[in-house]
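So, can you check these tokens?
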Amino acid sequence: MRSAPHRPVLRRLAPRTLRGRLSLVALTTAALLITALTLVFNTVVERHLRHQADDELRARATAVATTVDTSGPRVRVLETANDQLLDTNVWIYAGKRLLEKPPATTGGSPLARTAGRIATRGTPGCATVRAADHRSVRLCARPIPGGGAAATVVTALDLTPYQSSADTLLLGSLILDAAMLVCAYALTRLAVGRALRPVGTMTDQAIQWSAVASDERFSTGGGPAELARLGVSLDALLDRIRAVLRHERHLTGELSHELRTPLTRIIAELDWWRSRPRSATETRATHEVIDEAARSMRTICDTLLDEARENAADASTAPGTADVVPALRRMAQRLDTSAQVKAVVAADDAGLEAGVTPAFLERVVSPLLANAVRYARSTVTVSVRRTLSGVAIDITDDGPGVPEAFLGELFQPGRRADPGDGHHGAGLGLPLARRLARSVGGEVSYDAGYASGARFTVTLPAG
């Protein structure tokens, strides 16, 4: 609980850039590794120096052992030419009895006590003791076997030169570690900066290209695999942005185009009504025209906005599959038909599948079914068949059909063959159905040679 207030401080101290954070991580990792290596190196050096000291002590003990005679019943110390040199820091014991000791050493000193302790063991051994002047001294005991008596030689060595060498190596290694950490941090920042430079360039390009809806691409090949994956993701994002911009422009164009006609009618009626005094009947007729135009505008807006929302939803959904015949039968059951009109779904193969989602299939076919029911006299027939490239759906009605003079404008937005036929509609259903079908590689077409009414055909890819 007490460490919680420190977390905001740590967050503020942490680098804000990815380059700084990666450099900090690399520096921390290098520091831990170098620290571990330094500890291991200096431990090995200290052990090596101690072994060197022990080897020198054993060599001295061997040299002193040549001056000790243990062949008789008593231990005798022989005099040699280098007697003063051999007596320096040397203790000779016969059993527990001290025969010789360094001239400058008193019996109660730490060196003397330690020498006596390791000499009485009767086995080779070494010990480190701190002298009165705070020097570290290494002592080693070497037993000398004999015929009638046994002796032990204890030699001592000042470890100050060895400790000085170890301290010098430690200081040198610390300086070298600091230099290596500085170099590692600088090289890491340089390398990370060079590695992230393409990311910064791609970010600037993405901002620029998304603003102008450019057709440039990031995934042009080459470069590291991570940047290639980032390029593919940015390309997909730009494609979505371009699609949204195209759809927005298309929607804006359709709204401005389709609303122009009813607005023109409203303005014309108001101008006509204002031109001179009108009777109550003429005023009522003008109100009816304005009301009809306003309703038409609302229908146009609702239809276009609904289609825009559906397209936006489809843009984030991967293509799926739909069982065509069951979907058509559900749509036929939901149709708002009069008592005189009957809808029939006919299919030779009930297992046909289209390569679109059921909702997408319904959005394509629903406007065609609604038109067929609207103009049919008695029967609307929906038949499904397999084609070489997918599935074909024929929507046939026994109504008056499409006038030949109107065939060129049949799939134009906002066009109706007879606006005064008493049927509601904005003239947008067929264009939207064709646009949706073409977005997945399909088509919506009209059979001008069908003479017993009207027949529209929807083709969709196979599932």
The CA atoms of residues 240 and 315 lie 8 Å apart.
